[in-house]
Amino acid sequence: MERIDKVLANSGYGTRTEIKKLIKTKVVQVDGLLVKDPGMRVDPNTQDILIHGKQIQYRKFIYLMMNKPQGVISATEDNLHETVIDLLEPEHKVFEPFPVGRLDIDTTGLLLITNDGEFAHRLLAPKKHVAKRYRATLSAPVGEKEIEIFKNGVILDYEYKCLPAELILNKKSPDSIESDDVDVIIYEGKHHQVKKMFLSVGCEVQTLERLEMGPYKLDLELEPGEYQEFEPLPEHLSD
């Protein structure tokens, strides 16, 4: 059961404040009865909810793909910095979504945003080992030696050994043996992991962009800060 004002907000009829005003106009009905209280509990899956005599189209969850820009943090709120939620339109904010995992403030690229906790869990749970692909530019070139190091598991902070990772050289020519523009695929998500992995082999990450998270790939037509709705795969949805 959910509050009627939340149900109507999630159905695109305005903010909670706007819904309260709408209810006062006596145009909202549930199972033929006039709604007077915006806090009234309803089941949108089993009850008939009408506005101006028309059945509402309700959805509980929302799924957004954002091309996260630099300088914005992956959080729902912050007193100092703009957040990814601040970039959303009001009709999406009403779902009270949150970012699926985090990207550093200076990291760009694919960020999934939802209010479906089970969807987020199935992508973030450590035991799932969901692949995440990043593109990095580095302060120094890397080559076959670093590929082997990443493949065997980089040791971070003198104690933790990462899961094996894939380092892919984006060579400027077939004859190149080194590259300072690389893709890296990791299967976990430790704090600042990619940056620390490259530091362990003597390189600083200058730019970092996430391209993929599991089966979800960044739509390259999205400009930084833009987002769009997407259809999640059935195996990641709430039961």
What's a quick, concise take on this entry?
This protein has 239 residues and is an alpha+beta fold. 18% of the residues lie in helices and 29% in strands. It has three domains: 2-55, RNA-binding S4 domain (Structural Genomics Hypothetical 15.5 Kd Protein In mrcA-pckA Intergenic Region, Chain A), CATH 3.10.290; 63-126 and 218-236, Alpha-Beta Plaits, CATH 3.30.70.580; 131-213, Alpha-Beta Plaits (2-Layer Sandwich).
Low-confidence sequence ranges: none
How many strand units? Answer: 17
CATH architectural designation of the largest domain:
2-Layer Sandwich
Going by CATH, the homologous superfamily of the largest domain would be: Pseudouridine synthase I, catalytic domain, N-terminal subdomain
CATH topology name of the largest domain: Alpha-Beta Plaits
3D shape: elongated
Indicate the percent of residues in helices: 10-25%
Q: Rg from C-alpha positions?
A: 23 Å
Give a short account of the largest sheet. 9 strands, mixed
- Average pLDDT works out at 91
Share in β-strands: 25-35%
Order of helices and strands: EHHEEEEEEHEEHEHEEEEHEEE
Number of separate structural domains: 3
Task: Write up what this structure looks like.
The protein has 3 domains: 2-55, Structural Genomics Hypothetical 15.5 Kd Protein In mrcA-pckA Intergenic Region, Chain A; 63-126 and 218-236, Alpha-Beta Plaits (2-Layer Sandwich); 131-213, Alpha-Beta Plaits, CATH 3.30.70. It has 6 helices and 17 strands. The protein has helices at residues 4-10, 16-24, 90-93, 117-124, 144-152, 193-199, and strands at residues 2-3, 28-30, 33-34, 41-42, 49-51, 54-55, 63-68, 98-99, 108-114, 132-142, 155-156, 160-161, 166-169, 179-186, 205-213, 216-217, 227-229. The strands form 4 sheets. Strands 7, 8, 9, 10, 13, 14, 15, 16 and 17 form a 9-stranded mixed β-sheet that branches. Strands 3-2-5-6 form a 4-stranded antiparallel β-sheet, with no helix packed on it.
